[in-house]
Structures are given as C-alpha cells and as structure tokens.
Design brief:
The relative contact order is 0.13. The protein folds into two domains: 172 residues, HUPs (Rossmann fold), CATH 3.40.50.620; 94 residues, 2-Layer Sandwich (Pantoate--beta-alanine Ligase, Chain: A,domain 2), CATH 3.30.1300. It is of the alpha/beta class and 293 residues long.
Length: 293
Amino acid sequence: MERVVSIEEVRSILRRPRLEGRTVGLVPTMGALHAGHLALVTASRKRCDLTVVSVFVNPTQFGEGEDFESYPRDLDADVALLEDAGVDVLFAPTVPVMYPPGATTRVDPGPIGSVLCGASRPGHFTGVATVVTKLLGIVHPDVAFFGEKDYQQLRVLEHVVRDLDIDTRIVGVPIVREADGLALSSRNRYLSREDRAHALVLSRALEHVRKSAEAGDTDAAALKAELAARIAAEPAVTLDYAAIVDAKTLERVTVLTRESRALVAARVGSARLIDNVAIRIPGAATEPSRTGA
C-alpha cells in the first residue's frame, strides 16, 4: 500500500493505471476505522482494479461545540487495517492540503441537506459536500463507496454528483452491525458499557417499526410516533429526531406506498448516534440496489 499526503502524489500514482484503463474506487473516511469501513473497502476491491482510501477528519462538517478536536484519531491502527485489507493507496492529507489559505469555495447541496441531520447540524452537509467534491476532483474515481448508516449523507452525495455532472458513480453499502444490532460507528468509542447497552434501543425500535410496516401498518405518522415513543422510553437516551421518509427523496410521507426509510438520531452519553432501516412494503415500488452487486 502506498501512503501519500499530497494531491500531487495521488495524481501521479494514478496516472499510469488510468492510461492502462484500470478502474479506480474511492472510499472516503475520517479514520478510526472499523468493520463498517472495511466493508466499503471490500466492495471497492470487488468492483474496481484499484482502491484508494482517504483518511481525513474534515473540519468544515463540524459545527461550533461539536467534537472535531476530540474525534477519535489513530492513523497507525488505520494503516495496519488498510494494509491487511488490500488497499492500494492511502491518502491522508492535512487540513492545509485540503483547505489551503484563501480557499473559500463551498458546495451547498440545497434543501436535501437542510433536513434531518442538516436541521440539527446547520452547515454539516455543506462541509460534507465540499470535502467529497474535492476528493472526487483529486482522485477522479470511477466509483465512490459510502455506508448506508449515514443514509442522508449517501443521498446528499448522489444529489451533488448528479447536479454537478461529476463522472463518478456513488454506491451505498449496507450497514454493518454488531451481533446485538448496534450499528458500527467511530463514535461508538465514546460509549461506556452502560451507554452501549442503552444505545441498543435505537436499532431495536427501528426493527420493531420495520416489522410493523411490513406486516401492513402503512400509516407513517403512527409509525413515527411509535418509533419516537420506544426511544423515549429509555431515559438515558435523548432523541434528536425520528422520521419516516421516502427512501429516494428524504421527503416526509404520510402513507407508505413505496420503499421508505425510518431514521433516528439521538444522544447517548457524550455520543450523538444515527441509525436507520429500510422499509419495503410487499408489492410496493422499491429503489434499485446501490450496492453494485
């Protein structure tokens, strides 16, 4: 695995493979890697000839008072995992490389980035869209892979790539969970043993709502209320939002007539956690697979 820190190095390494017609996959990360990230690497290696992973804790997607300074960082451990996973190139730039002095341009994804997590974290998705657009411009991947745990992020980036005519396919990879259902997240490192036990209410509430919907309850307002109530019943968890939305547009729905998503965000201890689940109504229209399988 080649480990580089500059934009020029990345472009130099990829120049020959491109001339040879080899395909490039990109897995953007903020490090503190876990099995969920490695699932993205696996998807890229299956689909592309070369896999580039970026590790960069992006300051522009953190708001005032959020955990940019304390966000978990362990580049040596990340390097070992990526080498074992067969990654070809690790791009680990510094903040001045990605945002040199005088760089003021930002990419605003519009309304899709202002709801749900965007409402709770103003400017977050502008930061995400900006850094990913920059990474796509640096690496020029054929395909970029993102986890469905960050479902709104996935949809925002599909929107950005489409609107800006960027020639990269965005592919979503299913959520990776612990055996007890907890969605893997770098922020799980913030959880105490007690916090972790409390956090299980998120996946359990989502699963209950999914089963209810797929058994015939298509009243989105009732499902949302049930989702919120189940999470509120755990006093150690503070709900940010619970929502049932159209799986493609993220718009609120009243009756489930096509594939939807149930999404939650909540604070458990010092960690803000997000999770979601697909709701597929028998006989209803569904979204095409984004796994590239």
